[in-house]
Amino acid sequence: MNTLRAILLQASSVLAATVLFGIAAPPGASAQSYGSTLTQPASPTKAPGPDGFLQRWIILDPIHVNGVTQNAVQAAVKTNYFPGQFTVIPRDGDKVTVGDVELIWHAVDTKNYNVNLYHLVHALNKPFTNVLFWAVTIVNCPEEMRDVRLAIGSNDASVWWVNGQEVIGIYGDRQTVIDDGVSKKLTLNKGPNVIRCAVHNQGGATDFCARFLDAQNKPVKNLSLSLGDIGK
Fold first, then answer.
1. Gap between the Cα atoms of 174 and 176, Å rounded
2. Whole-Å CA distances, 8 to 5, 28, 33, 127, 194
3. Dihedral, CA of residue 144, residue 138, residue 8 and residue 136, to nearest 10
4. Taking the model in full, what pTM does it have?
5. CA triplet 201, 203, 207: central angle to 5 degrees?
6. Model pLDDT for residues 17-76, shown as the tens digit of each residue
7. Which helix H or strand E contains 168, and what residues bound it?
8. What is the dihedral of CA 84, 89, 95, 96, to 10 degrees?
9. Cα(137)–Cα(191) distance, integer angstroms
10. Domain 11-226 belongs to what topology?
């Protein structure tokens, strides 16, 4: 099993690793696709979408869990499934073992505002009912940004962390709605910021979306997205 990477210790080291190890498709090659909306990243960094949505993530194969109520989801995300659950910055292809099942991290870019997890699991031939997905991305800021809020939507429930602090959660059997949940005001550090989420799906379609809003409720776009040390 690959060694899991601990959470960023220094902004400069992560940014250097991002540039050095960023996924780049060979000349003439196309990135791997996961259904019609998701592809493997083909560049070290990516800008947010036109409306500020975060379109680059690394996602772990689903873990079997039950329940979409707040109590059930909170209990699920606080269960220790694998080492470094709240600190790891995984690479594409890294593996963890949950119980006796080996799970793989997959780096993806989405063509849409949302990340379609159903497309991902269908392409990977993985289950999508009563499952929990862990996802991570790194938001790189050119300067400190105060009074921003994380705005999210998910199908079904989800819990979100920014730089290790839980900031928002939405629960129940729901459809993804843009800005369905909005965090309190927070500060993004200059340099890399780790965004982490856990999405629970009870059944059927499943996806999520996220973006940052400024103090005027406008999408924050002057960011870049990376996945840390994502190369092999």
1. 7
2. 9, 33, 28, 31, 8
3. 140
4. 0.85
5. 50
6. 333 233 333 333 356 789 889 999 999 999 999 999 999 999 999 999 999 999 999 999
7. strand 165-170
8. 10
9. 13
10. Jelly Rolls (2.60.120)
